Amino acid sequence: xxxxxxxxxxxxxxxxxxxxxxxxxxxxxxxxxxxxxxxxxxxxxxxxxxxxxxxxxxxxxxxxxxxxxxxxxxxxxxxxxxxxxxxxxxxxxxxxxxxxxxxxxxxxxxxxxxxxxxxxxxxxxxxxxxx
Length: 131
What we know:
The protein has 2 domains: 1-56, Multidrug-efflux Transporter Regulator, Chain: A, Domain 2, CATH 1.10.1660.10; 75-131. 65% of the residues lie in helices and 5% in strands. It has 6 helices and 2 strands. Strands 1-2 form a two-stranded antiparallel sheet. The model has no long low-confidence stretch (mean pLDDT 91). Residues 1-68 form the HTH merR-type domain. This is MerR family transcriptional regulator. Pfam families: MerR_1.
C-alpha cells in the first residue's frame, strides 16, 4: 500500500510516516519507482508507534520498545524497567507542574488586577518585596 493508505489505516499522517522513516523507526517494505510501499508488518509497527507516542514515549524510547518487541529473547523485566523509569520522570514533571500551578495561583491572588500601574506579580518576579 502507498503512504496515504498506510497513514489512513494507521491513524497517522503521511508527514508522521516520513518522519518515522527519517528517524529509522520505520522502514517501508520496499520502494518502487521512488514510491514507498508499506506492508501489513509496517502497519503493525505504525500502530505500535502511534500507541507508544500517545502514551508519552519519545522517539528514542519508542525505538527501544520496538527493539524489545522484535527481540524474541527479551526479558519482560527490561520493558517494565523502561516503563517504570518513564513513569518516574512523568511523576517528577507532574510534581514540578503542580508547584508551578501553585506559584501562578499565588501570583494571581497577590495582584489587585485593577487600573493602577503597581503589579505585585511583576514585583515578585523582579525579586522586590511586596508592600
